[in-house]
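sanity check this chain:
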Amino acid sequence: MSMTKTVSIIFYKGRGTLAEKLIRLWTKSPYSHCEFRRSDGLCHSNDRRRLISRLERLEIDPKDWEVCELELPSEIVDRVERRQLCKNGTRYDWMGIIFSQVFRLGLHDKKRWFCSKSNADDLIYAYRLMKRSNKGCYEPYLKRLSIFQVVRPQECSPHRLYEILTHAS
């Protein structure tokens, strides 16, 4: 049995809708949406059209998506993926979009999600699980995810999350 599993945060850069074009314009980024691709191949995030948190199998066309892979300890991935199930069905965090992304006041609904907030929250959770365990074998993973000790998920746009992950490599 493998000691690690690979997950990915995948970033949508395809043509998109008018709303996605506005997100790109606002964030000055090619990315309008992101998903947490789990070790089982399913993707977890807020559906960008139905605005509800869900698990779904997506077709990932490389010309439309940018992939940032993460190798993490199996037991940590399992716990993150179990926790994602609790998010399923939750509604979109409009308060967070307006008061954390647009007006930068840091206000958000702790029980609702938007894509990058949910994905950053999952990585923060993984970081905290490993940090609390005090296992030396987690050190390389903690180093890669160390930025997540200061990240506030509601302040992460897809572009900001992409920057964090590509600079943490």
